[in-house]
Write a structure and sequence with these properties.
This protein is an alpha/beta fold. The protein contains 12 helices and 31 strands. β27 and β28 form a beta hairpin. It starts with a helix and ends in an 8-residue tail after the last strand.
């Protein structure tokens, strides 16, 4: 730039305006314009990146905000139920990997792998039929969009969700909502009275102070103290907040493994509802932890994400996934969508608590998710005896379906949540589910031959939801699976060859049990060795060269390593008799046989077709007459 300025200045002082000067001036103007455009473009890109969500939705995708899209040197692996630790270790040994141990209350292992080999080993293990799943330990960020507007005249979502009517019957009393996030500011004047003890799943201690600010915002949507002439109004006024800090990163990023550990801790420590304002519905590890909580009577809610993209996902029955809507009841332009979305909820310009102790408006599926979790808290407080399946069914059935044409779609799921309609449904909901699940073993094919390690697969359905499937061999439990498709690993090397009876039992959340019919398989581990040993055969009462006369008895005996199947007796090449026994006896009448030498041959056979023979010659002589 300094050189250009010198040239430009010199040119201006030149008395003669030559063609060279005009060309040079034009070049300088174009160059300066290009530099200005580049600076403007970089600034616009920076502003867009500040506003847009950038999630790692698949292995290998990295965000600009954080250099590591997954945990380096480790992956998450879950063996099939029933696979022994010894056989699991053999699989890991082939890939030069080892287990660091299991996640809390789950069968999922954290596996040490060489750095930069994470994706390759995940692909290899995913193709092993004895591995239920293998996945990267992805790093996800909070599903938050910072609102441009600073102030709002009112909390528009309260009337949209018909909360004032719902509050007449329920305010969330007695319900504990776990906030899995960056922590919560427990000293906030609008939160402190509603806080219960929590946990830090990264440090494994009770440090749940908010490291980022996002968690305090999420908590305020759920249960900020309300009707107190101060601050903001939450959805579940009297619910309790259980802070579960899943990250020690000031940017709020969290690994799937820490999310799963935090979720199982919340389930074991009294949480009724768990909110995860992160994009986790596609994680098998988090799904298993969510099913663990569901089996204990809880529900898990998660945000869909803010990429504005079709997730191309299928329903996750263990997690309630939420998209975001705006004040016009339309899906927010930046909200992700797909067939895994269960419901939609307000997520634009939501007033809530902040880490600093104040208040502010925020946007994102991060806040549609806790709005849904808080609505579940209202439903549960209206009738604490409802099962988690009934809670979810009420939430989805009562949702406003005006935007989705009365039926499920990928933008709104079952509809935008309506708290008043949900609470009103509680009185008309039966509290006891008496219908048992149905279950059947689907593979391997019945009566087929099996050997070594193989998987037993089952299909199960229920009017509400299947909690778990147990599979038995000859009446003994070999494994339990809690997530469809239901499958357990069976090591047939531990039993004798022969027919084995397999059965399955399915359970729902209320304890109803369904049983399958017996599914027979034939175990055949012993390798059939080819029989190449021929039988032995002997003529037992005659020797070669014997003199005979008159009626002669011929006795034959045979033996084999397995069994003799046949003996044949020939005299002078003519078959005289045969038997399937291991001994033979024949009476030879020689009165019409010429004198001299005759050949006797006996042959023995076994089941494999092996045969042997023995041969002798006997001399037929005239019978000596006795004296008178």
């Amino acid at each position: 730039m300094f050189k250009l300025r010198e040239i430009f200045t010199a040119s201006l002082t030149t008395k003669m305006r030559s063609p060279k000067f005009i060309v040079l001036t034009g070049v300088i103007v174009l160059l300066l314009a290009f530099i200005g455009y580049q600076a403007w473009h970089e600034y616009q890109t920076y502003q867009i990146n500040k506003m847009a969500e950038s999630f790692p939705t698949a292995a290998g995708t990295e965000t600009e905000e954080h250099s590591a899209a997954w945990a380096k040197g480790q992956i998450l692996v879950q063996p099939q139920p029933g696979l022994s630790e010894q056989n699991f270790q053999k699989i890991l040994d082939k890939h030069k990997t080892s287990s660091k141990g299991k996640l809390n209350q789950l069968r999922t292992h954290i596996i040490n792998v060489p750095e930069n080999a994470e994706q390759a080993i995940v692909r290899a293990l995913s193709n092993n039929p004895n591995i239920e799943f293998a996945e990267l330990d992805l790093l996800v960020k909070p599903s938050e969009i910072i609102a441009n507007d600073t102030y709002y005249d009112n909390a528009w979502h309260i009337n949209t969700m018909n909360l004032p009517t719902a509050w007449e019957s329920a305010k969330g009393s007695g319900v504990v909502v776990a906030i899995l996030d960056s922590g919560v500011n427990g000293n906030h004047t609008d939160l402190s009275a509603n806080m219960v003890a929590g946990w830090n799943s990264v440090s494994r201690n009770n440090d749940t102070d908010d490291i980022n600010g996002h968690g305090t915002q999420v908590a305020g949507v759920v249960a900020a103290i309300s009707d107190n002439n101060n601050g903001v109004t939450s959805i579940a006024w009297h619910a309790s907040i259980m802070p579960i800090r899943i990250t020690n990163d000031s940017a709020g990023y969290a690994y799937w493994s820490d999310v799963a550990n935090g979720l199982t801790w919340a389930a074991d420590n009294g949480a009724d509802i768990a909110n995860i304002s992160y994009k986790v519905s596609t994680s098998s590890t988090v799904t298993n932890a969510a099913q663990y909580m569901r089996n204990k009577g809880g529900l898990v809610v998660a945000s869909a994400g803010n990429g504005g993209a079709n997730l191309n996902c299928t329903d996750n029955p263990s997690i309630i996934t939420v998209s975001a809507t705006d004040s016009a009841d339309n899906k927010a332009s930046w909200s992700d969508y797909g067939n895994c979305v269960d419901v939609a909820a307000p997520g634009v310009g939501i007033w809530t608590t902040t880490k600093s102790g104040g208040y502010g408006a925020v946007s994102g599926t991060s806040f549609a998710s806790p709005a849904t979790a808080a609505t579940l808290a209202l439903i549960k407080s209206a009738n604490p005896n409802l099962s988690n399946d009934e809670l979810e069914n009420i939430l989805e059935t009562s949702a406003d379906k005006s935007k989705n044409g009365g039926s499920f779609n990928s933008y709104y799921g079952h509809g935008r949540i309506d708290a008043a309609a949900a609470v009103a449904m509680v009185a008309n909901t039966p509290t006891i589910d008496q219908q048992a699940p149905t279950v059947a073993i689907s593979s391997p094919t019945e009566n087929s031959l099996q050997s070594g390690l193989f998987n037993i697969n089952a299909n199960a359905q229920d009017n509400m939801a299947v909690s778990s499937v147990k599979i038995y061999a000859n009446g003994m439990l070999i494994g339990t699976d809690t997530v469809a498709p239901y499958s357990v690993n069976f090591d047939s090397n531990n039993i004798a060859d022969g027919s084995v009876a397999f059965t399955a039992q399915a359970y729902d959340a209320t304890g109803n049990q369904g049983s399958s019919s017996t599914h027979w398989l034939t175990i055949d581990n012993i390798v059939d060795v080819a029989d190449t040993t021929a039988p032995t055969v002997n003529i037992t009462n005659l020797v070669n060269g014997s003199n005979i006369s008159g009626s002669q008895e011929i006795n034959v005996s045979a033996s084999d390593n397995t069994a003799v199947t046949k003996i044949e007796l020939y005299i002078d090449g003519q078959l005289k008799t045969q038997t399937t026994e291991s001994t033979l006896s024949y009476s030879w009448n020689t009165r019409k046989v010429t004198q001299g030498y005759h050949t006797i041959v006996s042959k023995a056979f076994d089941a494999a077709g092996n045969q042997s023979q023995t041969s002798i010659q006997v001399n037929l002589v005239a019978k000596t007459k006795g004296r008178k």
